[in-house]
């Protein structure tokens, strides 16, 4: 199987704290670290662990941080197809509290690939599973060349404009930025998944609907950052593998739960390849 992500990356600084600070309060972090992360990159990491390699179509900034971001993605083992934008690399700051919950502040404009970028878009025709986390309409249409295409509702304006059939649309039922009403997309997605974090979620597929349970974490919960991105990567993989909906959601839930057991953005992810 081959997998790819068309999406975005951010350079993220993490700070581990006992709790979030009150307004005006000063607190001390017990640990800090930095990583190339963000929804597209974290999903690419999970797909790479499942398949053995991943193609990542992305855009980075033209500054030193953009160079470091691309370098780190390559160190993670991704096949990086990156356009360079004439602006700084997008950054983020994330608190991780004692319960493992993350709170994110984004800094700067999201950078994403364009179909007009000189990237090997034709390779997507040979890909089994693609997750679309960000991009323009032409990038999304290029992603549709893949056998299975999964997208986030966070990019709904682009999905509305492109009008491509989706094998699955994933949204967070608790995030106002990912609101989706049935009938908004034409053609309608084959599967719509609404996630509820540690409470599982629901799905609709044609005339069927149901719910799925969250999986138990295989260890202590350390950091919820990227759990949703690992979930959608697992779902993309399982659908391309041919799993039935309930089985695909159960596997995706295991990926999301496992991701919460690692401190960094990639440490807890499930691996199906012996060398990762």
List the helices and strands and how they pair.
Elements: E1 3-6, E2 10-16, E3 31-37, H1 39-51, E4 55-60, H2 64-75, E5 79-84, E6 91-96, E7 102-107, E8 129-132, H3 137-143, E9 148-152, H4 156-162, E10 168-172, E11 192-195, E12 201-205, E13 208-212, H5 227-241, H6 245-259
Parallel strand pairs: 1-4, 1-8, 2-6, 4-5, 8-9, 9-10, 10-11
Antiparallel strand pairs: 2-3, 6-7, 11-12, 12-13
Helix pairs in contact: 1-5, 3-4, 5-6
Summary tags:
single chain, 13 strands, 25% helix, 276 residues, nine-stranded mixed sheet, alpha/beta
Describe what this molecule looks like in 3D.
The chain is α/β, with parallel strands linked by helices and 276 residues long. It is built from 6 helices and 13 strands. It has helices at residues 39-51, 64-75, 137-143, 156-162, 227-241, 245-259, and strands spanning 3-6, 10-16, 31-37, 55-60, 79-84, 91-96, 102-107, 129-132, 148-152, 168-172, 192-195, 201-205, 208-212. The strands form 2 sheets. A 9-stranded mixed β-sheet has the order 5-4-1-8-9-10-11-12-13, with helices on both faces. The longest helix is centred in the last third of the chain and has 15 residues, at 227-241. The two termini are 16 Å apart. The model has no long low-confidence stretch (mean pLDDT 96).
């Amino acid at each position: 199987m081959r997998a790819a992500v068309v999406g975005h990356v951010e350079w993220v600084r993490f700070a581990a704290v006992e709790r979030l600070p009150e307004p005006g309060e000063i607190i001390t972090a017990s640990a800090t670290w930095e990583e190339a992360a963000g929804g597209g990159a974290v999903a690419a990491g999970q797909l790479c662990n499942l398949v053995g390699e991943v193609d990542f179509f992305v855009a980075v900034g033209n500054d030193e941080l953009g160079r470091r971001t691309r370098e780190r993605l390559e160190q993670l083992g991704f096949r990086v197809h990156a356009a360079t934008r004439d602006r700084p690399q997008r950054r983020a700051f994330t608190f991780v509290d004692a319960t493992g919950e993350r709170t994110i502040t984004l800094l700067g404009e999201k950078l994403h690939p364009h179909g007009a970028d000189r990237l090997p878009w034709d390779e997507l025709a040979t890909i089994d599973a693609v997750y679309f986390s960000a991009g323009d309409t032409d990038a999304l249409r290029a992603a549709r060349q893949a056998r299975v295409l999964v997208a986030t509702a966070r990019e709904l304006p682009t999905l509305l404009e492109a009008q491509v059939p989706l094998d699955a649309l994933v949204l967070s039922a608790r995030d106002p930025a990912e609101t989706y009403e049935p009938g908004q997309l034409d053609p309608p997605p084959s599967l719509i998944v609404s996630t509820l974090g540690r409470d599982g979620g629901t799905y609709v597929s044609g005339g069927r609907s149901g719910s799925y349970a969250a999986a138990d974490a295989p260890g202590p919960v350390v950091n919820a950052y990227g759990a949703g991105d690992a979930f959608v990567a697992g779902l993309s993989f399982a659908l391309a593998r041919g799993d039935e909906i309930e089985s695909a959601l159960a596997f995706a839930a295991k990926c999301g739960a496992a991701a919460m057991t690692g401190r960094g953005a990639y440490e807890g992810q499930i691996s199906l390849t012996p060398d990762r």
